[in-house]
Amino acid sequence: MVRWQPGTSERLQAAALELFASNGYEQTTAAEIAQSVGLTERTFFRHFSDKREVLFHGQQLLVEAFLGGVAAAPDDAPPMELVAAALGAAEEFFPAERRDHSRLRQTVIDQNQALQERERHKLSVLAATLGDALRARGVAEPAATLAAESAATVFGVAFTQWIAPGEDRSIGEIERSVLAELRDLIAVAPVGNA
Amino acid sequence: MVRWQPGTSERLQAAALELFASNGYEQTTAAEIAQSVGLTERTFFRHFSDKREVLFHGQQLLVEAFLGGVAAAPDDAPPMELVAAALGAAEEFFPAERRDHSRLRQTVIDQNQALQERERHKLSVLAATLGDALRARGVAEPAATLAAESAATVFGVAFTQWIAPGEDRSIGEIERSVLAELRDLIAVAPVGNA
User: Fold this and answer.
1) Where is the HTH tetR-type domain (chains A, B) (predicted)?
2) Which of A147, B45, B61, B120 is least crowded, fewest Cβ atoms below 10 Å from its Cβ?
3) Under an 8 A CB cutoff, do B150 and A185 touch?
4) pLDDT tens string A18-45
């Protein structure tokens, strides 16, 4: 019987993360990553266009998970219910067993400004794509943009809390708590004429 | 008597915008911009590090205006009052006479994906800087990040409305209306346990 082995992509990802974390992102080459799991540099580049892609591999999948959440919501769901459905998809995407991987990944990103910018850019792409999905569901402006940007903000803050040391709540539980904080915060905003 | 003339930077900016809008951003060179107002390419590069900088020249000033708004708020102002103070600073930064310039600039940015990304990046820098200012004023997390990101969202949506064809409300008035819409939207968000 053949013992189950994670796919080549996953092995390369895990190896890259270890090397980035221990030797530094800049100092690690694609060839070293491949070598550390007994593969060639050429194999590495069949799976990832560059070293940075190893860290941002899941981005498209995360965006699709959010869109799947929206698609599964009832036809007549109001904007913030669509947003809640999108946020709910993060729960499957970041199960508890992925938390250590996400923590290690974050330590790598925190050490490099270009990676931090890419990470921020990721959130703005998530917001833009979600906004498109809400407009396609008939949500008018500016509600679609406001709801989508708020969802990305809530997700970003919740994700940061989820990977904090000692945190053990699920990302969904944290998202709901952050959304409630946002609601309470905005509820007291002065919006009269200045 | 010497007639007042706008500074060299302003003349280069206005000329660049006209050329970008009529001939295309990609097709316009720094030398052509300089030439069109009787200056040399060398003078252009004393004022702007590259062609793109002409379009993003005011970014640091906008961020400073937002921070100035926060600094001027009373010591005991709650987070969303600090945010309202920051948003209020946009009113002086974008007076009615600047609207046509901003509209023309947007047509240039809309034609180029890299410029659109830079513009989105600008908003995330604004949010990050505002978050730092709120934390420095003692606002705790996640309120500081939520308030700062919401301010950037409201500003972004309000700015888009401000430059829309036929719009004649001030940016401050629009911001207050967008903030009220955000509040009403989030107020009905489902935040119970899923």
Assistant:
1) 6-66
2) B61
3) yes
4) 999 999 999 999 999 999 999 999 999 9
